[in-house]
Design brief:
457 residues; alpha/beta; Aspartate Aminotransferase, domain 2; four-stranded antiparallel beta sheet; 12% strand; lyase; Aromatic_deC; pyridoxal phosphate
């Protein structure tokens, strides 16, 4: 037997003990999350010699890398609209790793059936009609990619071209209209071959990030043919919403594919208080909702929803004699960019079954109340300026005097909170979003104290 085989055999025999050690480490991390410094990033120590095997690797990881990781799963990490992981989602995620399904919907597993059930739970919680089929993908970028790829195929149908077969050259230039498309949409346009220059920015309402629907109608009227319109349900800086119902109504006058990027704010529809903000999204052609944000499941997870399953399959169909080729909900091999897929639906199924709409409405409303409270403190502080009303779970501010980036560095250096830089209406600013299920008022008071502690006298 080779040395490697000896090591593997020993690890197999020690699997139970190894998992107990890892479980103990995980429990320690979870217990410390509320108090750990939020920022990480310290460089790893130099590699160390070890004798091989899982325990040696675990010890090396704990020594070299663990101390420098960010506590981004904690309740005071306000960067990138990052959620944590609910207890039920964590259970599902651990099981997903142990079960290790290739969740393509093939006949050897009921993973596809569970994913379909999860998508139904998801639609019901958000008030979306059954006309939307969906699939779990790795994140909002890939969900936007799927929606825009399907929209690209729809443009081909309008022009009498099968883009998936003939390629973009047969389609010609494409126009994508949006007031504030997220950078992941721009990235997707590059990956899809449509090009970043295909995005044409339309005017936003004064002092808002939401599209001016009149300006959008004018841009559609001036377009040489059918377009893709990307509408926002929750912008990154101010959590602003396009008027989705008014935009969808333009379909009576113009031909366009409506893609709604609701990466984090789509989950707000779980709350009766905030669902009206998303009125009209049920008329979209495709929708993006991220799950590792406000649904609070572990990375990586998002849902790509569409009304046009056959078009989606034309893009992502995989021809091989040994694969199921039928196009139907649940045969995810034919509907997503990946041929091999982690069992991402399982953590989402666990958390949706465990907490339901009422649980998520509570998370949404609590986080929004917390953001509004922080916004009130900022607005009342003469050394700071709140740059936009707090509309949902995010906030954006800047110092009255001095550099926003320097202030952000000082705030993040406290280890009490992590936020990110941005530019709003041409001004450098600081932004954050509260998306964690376990964030408390005590956390908010710690954050505000940290901000105050680094303000100039």
């Amino acid at each position: 037997m080779s040395k490697l085989s000896d090591i593997l055999s020993n690890d197999l025999a020690q699997t139970d003990a190894l998992l107990r050690e890892v479980c103990a480490q995980a429990k320690q991390i979870l217990a410390q999350l509320p108090t750990l410094p939020v920022g990480g990033g310290s460089p790893p120590a130099a590699p160390i010699a070890h004798s091989g095997g899982a325990r040696a690797a675990l010890n090396e990881y704990l020594t070299r890398f663990s101390p420098g990781l960010a506590a981004s799963a904690g309740p005071r990490y306000f960067g990138f609209v990052t959620g944590g992981a609910t207890p039920a989602a964590l259970v599902g995620d651990w099981l997903a790793s142990v079960i290790d399904q290739n969740a393509t919907g093939s006949a050897d597993s009921n993973a596809g059936a569970l994913e379909l059930e999860t998508l139904a739970l998801f639609r019901d919680m958000l008030g979306l009609p059954d006309a939307f089929n969906g699939a779990f993908v790795s994140g909002a970028t890939m969900a936007n990619f799927v929606g825009l790829a399907t929209g690209r195929q729809w443009l081909g149908v309008q022009a009498g071209v099968d883009v998936a077969e003939a390629g973009l050259a047969a389609l010609g230039p494409v126009r994508v209209l949006s007031a504030g498309a997220h950078s992941s949409t721009v990235k997707s346009l590059a990956m899809l071959g449509l090009g970043r220059q295909s995005l044409h920015r339309v005017a936003a309402l004064p002092g808002r990030e939401a599209a001016d629907v009149v300006a959008l109608a004018e841009a559609l009227a001036a377009a040489p043919g059918p377009c893709i319109v990307v509408a926002n349900a929750g912008t990154v800086n101010t959590c602003d919403f396009d008027d989705l119902a008014a935009i969808a109504a333009l379909k009576d006058r113009f031909d366009f594919w409506l893609h709604v990027d609701a990466a984090f704010a789509g989950i707000a529809a779980a709350s009766d208080r905030y669902r009206p903000r998303l009125a009209g999204w049920e008329m979209a052609d495709s929708i993006t909702v991220d799950c590792h944000k406000w649904l609070n499941v572990p990375y990586d997870s998002a849902v790509a929803l569409t009304r046009h399953l056959p078009l989606q399959a034309e893009v992502f169909r995989n021809h091989a004699a040994y694969l199921r080729g039928e196009v139907e909900p649940g045969n995810f091999l034919q509907l997503t960019p990946e041929n091999s897929r982690r069992f991402r639906a399982l953590p989402a199924w666990f958390t949706l079954r465990a907490y339901g709409q009422a649980g998520y409405a509570g998370i949404v409303e609590r986080n929004c109340d917390q953001a509004r409270w922080l916004g009130e403190q900022i607005a009342a502080e003469p050394r700071l300026r709140l740059l936009a009303p707090v509309m949902l779970n995010g906030f954006c501010f800047a110092p009255v005097e001095g550099d926003a980036a320097a202030l952000l560095d000082r705030i993040n250096a406290t280890g009490e909170v992590f936020m990110t830089p941005t530019v709003l209406f041409g001004q450098s600013a600081i932004r954050g979003a509260i998306s964690h299920w376990a964030t408390t008022q005590a956390d908010m008071e710690r954050v505000w104290a940290a901000i105050q502690s680094v303000l100039p006298d």
